[in-house]
Amino acid sequence: DHHILKIINNQFVSFLVKEMIHWQLQWQEKKKILLTG
User: Fold this and answer.
1) Which of 1, 12, 16, 20 is 20 to 30 A from 26, alpha carbon to alpha carbon?
2) How far is the C-alpha of 13 from the C-alpha of 5, rounded, in Å?
3) Which of 3, 22, 25 is nearest to 14 (CA)?
4) Separation CA 2–CA 16 (nearest Å)
5) Distance CA 8, CA 5 (A)
6) Cα separation of 9 and 15, whole Å?
């Protein structure tokens, strides 16, 4: 019961981390375009 919650929480955290990394990469690309454009 508690174990299942832990698993769900871990999946959620890893999902958030992936989203944040993805967002940061996109932002870096946009900044590059703005700076060079």
Assistant:
1) 12
2) 12
3) 22
4) 21
5) 5
6) 10
Instruction: Pull the structure tokens for residue 37.
Output: 């454009």
Listing DSSP states for 1-37 in one string gives -HHHHHHHHHHHHHHHHHHHHHHHHHHHHHHHHHHH-
Q: Which two tokens stand for residue 26?
A: 């996109």
CA 4, CA 24: separation in Å to the nearest integer?
Answer: 30
Token pair of 24 as six digits: 């940061």
Domain ranges of the chain: 1-37
